[in-house]
């Protein structure tokens, strides 16, 4: 990825409240980690940007951009049973080649045979279709829809198992946020609709049952990993920036199994995980709803 995009690399959606840009699958991002479909490059409300990128110019990570979703960060489908030199499945990306006996590492760039993606743009939404995607006994049809409704951005998912093996994995959205377009400061807070139980913590963070704040302006990497006791189906998180006056709320419309919060001084990323075991012939729908306010 570089700082210059070809005009064909992006498409735009706009209404009276929001404008957003979407990356064309297989152009700007071609890595093996994140779902190629529906990567939201930027969202602006009254010309105020909300999204950033993973790289800080020195640390480039996995090339994450804006709203980047991922299936199987820990357990991609079929990896454990894949022989060296053979392919395993990464939903939304394609067939990846296993290179050694080591455990799967989401930071490692794997060789990708991308699954074909059909893009259908409309006035107020864009559909992404991946159909008849197969690796050995695993197969799926996948539809992702990005839509706008007033000050809301909605990402809808529809995954159907058309193979002989179950699709057991997890999905989340790596929200690379830059509220107000500036650096992350002590005036930014993360609030959640339900209490969480902290598992891991590093960096200058203050943790309460439903709130994460900063002890100081962050200058180094920070991270908290937390478990959800009852897997709430109406979970939401809210980012508030006292400096710029912007607020971003996200409703996660699925049973949330765990949450994480990662970042550096230039970007922050709240993440809610969706674990599932989709049996052959079954399909599954879920969504995320982002509300932007000033």
Write the layout of secondary structure elements.
Blueprint: E1 10-14, E2 18-23, E3 40-45, E4 48-49, E5 67-71, E6 87-90, E7 94-97, E8 112-114, E9 118-121, E10 125-135, E11 138-149, E12 152-161, E13 167-175, E14 188-192, E15 197-202, E16 205-208, E17 211-214, E18 222-227, E19 235-241, E20 247-253, E21 258-263, E22 268-278, E23 283-293
Antiparallel strand pairs: 1-2, 2-3, 3-4, 5-13, 6-7, 7-8, 9-10, 10-11, 11-12, 12-23, 13-22, 14-17, 14-19, 15-18, 16-17, 18-21, 19-20, 20-23, 21-22
What can you see in these coordinates?
- There is one protein chain.
- This protein is mainly β.
- The protein has one domain (7-293): Beta-galactosidase, Chain A, domain 5 (Distorted Sandwich).
- The protein has strands spanning 10-14, 18-23, 40-45, 48-49, 67-71, 87-90, 94-97, 112-114, 118-121, 125-135, 138-149, 152-161, 167-175, 188-192, 197-202, 205-208, 211-214, 222-227, 235-241, 247-253, 258-263, 268-278, 283-293.
- It has a ten-stranded antiparallel β-sheet, with no helix packed on it.
- A hairpin with a 2-residue loop joins strand 11 (138-149) and strand 12 (152-161).
- The protein is globular, with a radius of gyration of 18 Å.
- It starts with 9 loop residues before the first strand and ends with a strand.
């Amino acid at each position: 990825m570089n700082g210059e995009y070809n005009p064909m690399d992006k498409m735009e959606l706009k209404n009276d409240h929001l404008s957003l840009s979407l990356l064309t699958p297989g152009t700007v991002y071609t890595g093996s980690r994140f779902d190629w479909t529906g990567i939201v490059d930027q969202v602006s409300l009254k010309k105020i940007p909300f999204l950033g990128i993973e790289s800080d110019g020195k640390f480039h990570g996995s090339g994450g951009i804006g709203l980047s979703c991922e299936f199987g960060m820990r357990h991609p489908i079929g990896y454990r049973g894949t022989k060296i030199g053979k392919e395993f499945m990464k939903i939304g990306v394609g067939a990846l080649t296993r290179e050694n006996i080591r455990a799967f590492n989401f930071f490692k760039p794997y060789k990708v045979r991308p699954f074909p993606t059909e893009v259908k743009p409309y006035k107020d939404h864009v559909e992404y279709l991946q159909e008849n995607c197969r690796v050995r006994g695993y197969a799926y049809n996948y539809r992702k829809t990005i839509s706008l409704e007033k000050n809301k951005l909605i990402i809808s998912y529809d995954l159907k198992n058309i193979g002989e093996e179950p699709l057991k994995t997890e999905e989340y959205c790596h929200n690379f946020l830059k509220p107000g377009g500036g650096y992350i400061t002590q005036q930014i807070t993360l609030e959640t609709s339900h209490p969480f139980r902290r598992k891991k913590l590093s960096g200058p963070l203050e943790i309460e049952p439903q709130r994460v704040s900063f002890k100081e302006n962050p200058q180094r990497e920070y991270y908290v990993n937390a478990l959800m006791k009852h897997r709430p189906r109406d979970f939401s998180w809210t980012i508030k920036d006292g400096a710029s006056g912007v607020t971003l709320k996200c409703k996660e419309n699925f049973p949330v199994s765990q949450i994480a919060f990662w970042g550096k001084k230039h970007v922050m990323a709240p993440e809610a995980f969706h674990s599932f075991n989709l049996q052959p012939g079954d399909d599954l729908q879920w969504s995320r709803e982002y509300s932007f306010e000033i």
